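Think of the structure tokens as a kind of shorthand, similar to the way a musician reads notation: each symbol stands for something richer, in this case the local conformation of the backbone. In the example below we present two proteins back to back. Begin with the first one, reading the sequence and then the tokens, and try to describe in your own words what changes along the chain.
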Amino acid sequence: MSEEEKLSQEEITTAREERRLELQQRFNPQRMKVVRKELFANLRDPAVTIRDGSITFNTACINGLEDVVWVNLMIDEEAGLLAVQECDENDKHALRWCIVKPDKRKSRKMTCPGFTDLLYSTMNWDKNCRYKILGYQIEFEGKPLYVFDLSAYKIFQEKPKKGEEGEDVQVEMPVDRKGYFPEDIANTFGVPVEAHKQEMEVTELNGLVSIGALTSPGRVKQE
């Protein structure tokens, strides 16, 4: 390498170091936000789709809890969290969340109008829509389970049911029925770094109660 080439390389290295130091000085974690995963394509991520009358966990979710067929659904109304964990088939509130075949398991539409009526009312959701929510696997009491943040959803307009084609559905949505996010997600990149840290520090699921018995012991409003 010639002296001229060496000098050029040194200049490049020096310039890069100066740039690195400049960026280090400009970097302020107090102003940074963790970009929401919901804003990215997530077809292969664990998710639940909630419709008026049913819920369905996708294949990624089913595969994430290997060999699990029977589950308990749990909800924390105050925190707006839905969770699913493995349970014994003979559990009083056991629910079958998948279809088991000799070579594979697949997702299953779980019909539950009583549950979705209450959930839509609690969350103030529109029954003309379905809601897709990403799931995050955590560990509780040594076992894996999924937790879904009911406030971080993607919303889709449902096709009219039979006999409803001529009705005027008052829903402010794109006519192509593409999903969209609530304003607090769609109009922001994400959450502040400190807030993200606090979200990830959850170690216990206080307040979760079995959906099969919304009046079970837990953080439930008392009359």
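Once you have a description of the first chain, move to the second and do the same.
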Amino acid sequence: MAEQVAKLKKKQWYNITAPKQFDNAVIGETLVYEPQQMLGKTLSHSLMNLTNDMKRQNVSIRFKVAEIEGDKGKTRIIGYEIAPSSVKRFVRRASEKVDLSFTCETSDNVFLRVKPLVVTKSDIKGSTAAKLRHNIVAFLAKTVKNMTYDEFINELIMHKVQAAMRETFNKIYPLKVCEIRYAGIEQREKPKEEPKEEPKADEPKAEVLEQKQ
């Protein structure tokens, strides 16, 4: 009988909402049998549409449904990304692109992948380029560690992290572009277990067969 009821039940459209920093605006809808089936669903949305700021049309925010409230799916932000087409336009001749990718952790122990993008006004080589790369990673890792995940995402969306980075490094290396092209939650890698050695007493000896010439 229960199976027959399940078959008769129809899918319905349910709204998916943004977190409170975007005023819980409806950002999508999905067709499911039950609201609980929305959990874990992901979607992307243009930051321009969320903030009504034309300057942010090249940025997308990735959301994941983390909670069900009534018949709505409430999301959390899991990623921030600049469109690849915009990244390509940032780079010009007679400049140096510093494109990095590293992991770091927020003060509330959220593990992130961060990809800063810096373009200098002139070529930098050798030790100067290496020093710039090291300093960018150190600066951002410290910045992230001093914030909760929500604080970091909010500062990123408001472009405060990028502005602070530009102010810090522009005095040393004149910059054309200073952006975070990607930041998102990443799964920690589980430590690999070392293979256990089997007792050798009962192991058969391997025979070496010579191939006939």
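Compare your description with these statements about the second chain. Residues 126-145 form the longest helix (20 residues).
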